[in-house]
């Protein structure tokens, strides 16, 4: 019976969809007019319900008549080998009742039967490494006005993962303000308190790569299932999903599954949800379900405390006036603050010199140079070509390939904006014939940034990098 249903279904949907959603199904039982099919997960069941219920109904009715019933059996995924396989029962949720009313034939009878599914214990045995950095913990994450809300929300989540209204917890803020550190700290703390929970830290970039890989290898399903057995999912730099529709879609389903099952989701982003570009509305609205907490620039006292803590941990001493000098001069990026300290220590020990104010001035100059000094055209070309993953020669070449032309025009635009060089001089330094090319580039960038979202994001990203 099921085979006949399958060939009917196969004829009616794309082969990719068929492979993904129907090949993994096994028919396990046929009793009178009730067919039991085994699906790999609850998510899988929900997906079928949402997308293929009509098709299934038609296929089944053709085979078994109008009294046909469908029973879903969920194959369980067992996270830890030493545990009893557990069974998951699908409650007859409101959602599925509403759904089944749409279906006017006896398929709707499946809901009560789902309460008592016939379950085949799972065979999977997955142990997931958390990918957490133990040095990024709460103890090292100093509290200050700038991070108080985010930090205490993080602690609350760590105490009761999935059990607070902070789900998802979205931590957002500028570069180097502690998003990654805080995200790890929450995970580390949860692992401490709840060792049995499966925690996973992943950057949005890696998540995207994994997803693309899974699509290539035709195991998108395994990818989804892998993420669905996680208790605490931490995704760093979620803004990187911008413009990636496929990844956003799969993340949306994973997110829903986890959220519905009371699992905790923690996200970080370099901007607030309202400012995110090219992220689907339905995802943005999910992000707002929980709490968005901002990490702000640390105030003076917090900067001093962070410096002292860092010195203490590295076992280094530094005169008070130098600490104050650093705290006074590096204000907007804790990573730069740490970088300056490290480089100060390195210089002084390498040259066997004391740490002096002069040395500190020198180093701070390097760290905050782009706000103080004029940005050079060379530097702009370097930043732009790095951003678009090409080398400077390509950027300067005569090619008309669109993305290279765009990169070149952006370089000219920023050269005009950030340097005092003349149009002609910008043109010749970026390998162009004359000032008209540069003028045209500036106009094009202006136009495109007001009409093309993706392009505007390029401009914003680059602007940030150049003024860092
Ligand atoms: P982001 O992910 O926001 O760019 P990171 O989490 O990578 O920033 O933080 C940059 C550096 O600053 C890290 O080394 C981190 O340990 C340190 N840092 C950030 N916030 C704090 C804090 N509140 N206390 C101590 N160190 C911090
Ligand atoms: Mg980070």
UniProtKB/TrEMBL annotation:
PROSITE patterns on file: DNAA (PS01008)
UniProt-annotated stretches for the region Domain IV, binds dsDNA: 349-468
Binding-site list for ATP: 176, 178-180
Keywords linked to the UniProt accession: ATP-binding, Cytoplasm, DNA replication, DNA-binding, Lipid-binding, Nucleotide-binding
Coiled-coil annotated residue ranges, if any: none
Region called Domain I, interacts with DnaA modulators, residue ranges: 1-79
PANTHER family (UniProt xref): CHROMOSOMAL REPLICATION INITIATOR PROTEIN DNAA
Name under which the protein is recorded: Chromosomal replication initiator protein DnaA
Species, as recorded: Jejudonia soesokkakensis
Origin organism lineage: Bacteria, Pseudomonadati, Bacteroidota, Flavobacteriia, Flavobacteriales
